Task: inverse folding
């Protein structure tokens, strides 16, 4: 298993980790397989979405905030239930096919770490089978 560390800078932030995932494939000379990307956190997530227009990242966070506003009267004592809800909405793991030494992603797709309660130091666990 491989581990990436990502330092986030904002409370809510979507960070492209595609190049770092591709480096793991290159460094380990992997030609094909399945990459599992897993975030061992309850207030972060991972997703795949558009990398063309940066406003897509902004709009995703905007809509997630509307679904789970930080100001909502949740009961959880930490005061970050909105982040827990957002984490569940995006999920904490995904898989990407590897072929010919490359991640099989659509032209406009990137893999993103989603921070919902930063800034923090996050871990991303990567397993290739
Ligand atoms: Zn909490």
Result:
């Amino acid at each position: 298993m491989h581990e990436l560390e990502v330092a986030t800078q904002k409370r809510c932030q979507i960070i492209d980790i595609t190049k770092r995932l591709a480096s793991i494939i290159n460094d380990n000379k992997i030609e094909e397989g399945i990459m599992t990307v897993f975030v061992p956190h309850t207030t972060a997530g991972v997703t795949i979405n558009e990398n063309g227009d940066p406003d897509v990242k902004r709009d995703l966070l905007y809509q997630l905030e509307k679904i789970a506003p930080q100001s909502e009267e949740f009961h959880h004592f930490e005061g970050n239930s909105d982040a827990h809800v957002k984490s569940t909405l995006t999920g904490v793991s995904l898989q990407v096919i590897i072929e010919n030494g490359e991640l099989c992603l659509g032209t406009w797709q990137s893999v993103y770490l989603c921070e919902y309660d930063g800034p923090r130091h996050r871990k991303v666990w990567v397993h290739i089978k």
In short: The mean pLDDT is 97. Residues 76, 78, 80, 84 surround zinc ion (CB under 6 Å). The two ends are 10 Å apart (CA to CA).
